[in-house]
Write a sequence for this structure.
């Protein structure tokens, strides 16, 4: 990371600029505690397994399964050495959005190479800030019912909620939890807890004033305008670093044990990387619970894990093809098969 930053500065003629010292949260190290949820096992086929019909994947099938689970998590924390804690993350993906419908219609390649940079094809609209589709609302209702079904068995409900600033995730959070329990403290929106930063029009969020009006249940400590949507696309490496950064912020500032994060497939994939969890293709409106051991990363030397790019660090936007053979769109940076190339993310 340091090498690429220096290279980028040198090539832009700005190598004499010094960044301020990093004063963000301590960097944390995560590891998955196996044995509690089937999704953590490689033996579970993520293409066919439906955890909503199976106590969210809890391996204990007994009538007192969740009470035993809570006792086990409590014991882990009571016996944890200094500087170590255990948390249970409920990673939730939004229900199907209109952009998911459009991507399925156009096909992955045409979507990533051209249509994602539009907001409509003239008959169907998916941007900006794609909303849930009718099927998406139905999927979320099913997830909410799955939580209600486990309440009599003692499922530990989230003590805190963290959510993406995009409408499809906000709607998923509210529609999932209002029928079950959505008590204070209020869910908190995080600007960085969002899908791959990109030129995709569906990922351009609404104004903060609109979101506050539409989702009064949620706290929005964000700017009025979207500061992150632009004409270049984040790489997978860049997204992993961003999500690790915001995950550290959340865990450092949230003392609770049972923490819910409602976001996007890309966010969840990067979160699983940070946790050291196996890859898991979570379906829309799906939930993957993970028992996580949290400790300070003693090898961290204090350099920033992620920071927002300055305007002069981002290549100039221009009309060109993202992929060979497709109509040009307004983009900046470099791409391979529609994905951003490090270090422009």
């Amino acid at each position: 990371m340091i090498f690429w930053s220096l290279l980028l500065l040198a090539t832009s003629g700005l190598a004499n600029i010094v960044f301020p010292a990093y004063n963000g949260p301590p960097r944390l190290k995560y590891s998955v505690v196996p044995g509690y949820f089937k999704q953590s096992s490689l033996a579970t086929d993520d293409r066919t397994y439906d955890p909503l019909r199976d106590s969210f994947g809890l391996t204990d099938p007994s009538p007192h399964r969740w009470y035993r689970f809570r006792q086990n998590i409590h014991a882990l924390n009571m016996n944890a050495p200094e500087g170590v804690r255990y948390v249970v993350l409920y990673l939730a993906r939004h229900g199907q959005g209109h952009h998911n419908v459009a991507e399925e219609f156009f096909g992955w390649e045409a979507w990533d190479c051209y249509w994602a940079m539009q907001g409509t094809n003239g008959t169907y609209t998916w941007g900006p800030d794609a909303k849930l589709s009718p099927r998406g609302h139905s999927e979320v209702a099913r997830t909410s019912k799955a939580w209600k079904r486990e309440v009599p068995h003692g499922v530990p409900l989230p003590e805190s909620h963290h959510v993406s600033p995009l409408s499809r995730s906000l709607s998923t959070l509210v529609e999932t939890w209002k029928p079950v329990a959505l008590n204070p403290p209020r869910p908190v929106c995080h600007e960085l807890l969002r899908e791959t930063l990109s030129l995709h029009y569906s990922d351009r969020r609404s104004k903060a004033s609109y979101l506050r009006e539409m989702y009064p249940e949620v706290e929005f400590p964000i700017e009025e305008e979207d500061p992150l949507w632009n004409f270049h696309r984040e790489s997978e490496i860049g997204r992993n670093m961003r999500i690790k950064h915001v995950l550290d912020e959340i865990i450092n500032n949230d003392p609770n044990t049972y923490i819910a994060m409602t976001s996007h497939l890309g966010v969840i994939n990067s979160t699983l990387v940070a946790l050291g969890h196996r890859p898991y293709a979570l379906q829309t409106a799906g939930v993957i619970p993970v028992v996580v051991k949290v400790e300070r990363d003693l090898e961290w030397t204090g350099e920033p894990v992620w920071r927002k790019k300055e305007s002069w660090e981002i290549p100039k936007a221009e009309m060109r093809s993202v992929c060979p053979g497709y109509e040009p769109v307004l983009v900046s940076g470099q791409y391979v098969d529609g994905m951003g190339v490090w270090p422009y993310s």
Q: What stands out?
A: The CA atoms of residues 38 and 57 lie 5 Å apart.
